[in-house]
Design a protein that fits this description.
Number of domains: 2
Number of helices: 8
Strand order of the largest sheet: 1-2
CATH topology of the largest domain: Rossmann fold
Largest sheet: 2 strands, parallel
Number of strands: 2
Helix content: 40-55%
Order of helices and strands: HEHEHHHHHH
CATH class of the largest domain: Alpha Beta
Strand content: 5-15%
Radius of gyration: 23 Å
């Protein structure tokens, strides 16, 4: 952690900059609530090092750092990291609306050959609740389905089939045997 912060400072200095940004994706991995992993003290040590760096105990006035992070699991984060003076602002990013989904689909299909029957507005309407990552996966799955048929263009039916695959996973051509069905049933009962 200390090396990450020092590298950011050194890189900024080399480029004659007075600021640098550190972005940590899925920060909950580094910043989980302390004491949760009794056998893995290095998790707590990593979080402690992050907190020390964010508090500025090693002040380097020549380079100011902005720390940004992303998570889907704020509930897992240590409260010390969410106190004022650390991550001061939290910006919740909602799932995209129909217009947003259309723009994301355009972005992820811009380098893919679409057939004339593909209406991305219709696909955007049919993908309510999809995240940007789901939409990227959808475009890629549609392309794979078209490739499997040795087609040069992606048709609407490929997007339609890809929606099911993204939501439910790979289609199985075989029926699970009774032992697998029993194991899955016991697993699901455990959830209930």
């Amino acid at each position: 952690m200390r090396k990450l912060f020092q590298t950011a400072r050194d890189t900024a200095k080399k480029k004659s900059k007075k600021t640098a940004i550190i972005f940590v994706d899925e920060i909950e991995v580094l910043a989980a609530k302390r004491g949760q992993n009794s056998s893995h003290m290095e998790y707590d040590q990593t979080l402690n090092a992050l907190l020390v760096e964010m508090d500025g105990l090693k002040v380097d006035d020549s380079v100011r750092l902005l720390i940004m992070a992303a998570t889907n699991r704020v509930d897992m984060m240590d409260p010390a990291l969410l106190r004022p003076g650390r991550f001061d602002r939290q910006i919740k990013v909602e799932l995209p609306d129909k217009t947003g989904r259309l723009e994301i689909l355009k972005l992820h299909s811009r380098n893919k050959p679409l057939a004339s029957d593909v209406d991305l507005k219709l696909v955007a309407r049919e993908t309510f609740g999809f995240s940007g990552a789901h939409l990227e996966s959808l475009a890629n799955e549609a392309a794979i389905l078209a490739m499997r048929e040795s087609l040069k263009e992606i048709h609407y039916r490929h997007f339609h089939e890809a929606v099911d695959k993204v939501i439910m996973g790979e289609r199985l051509d075989r029926r699970p045997n009774p032992e697998e069905l029993k194991r899955v049933a016991i697993h699901e009962i455990g959830h209930a």
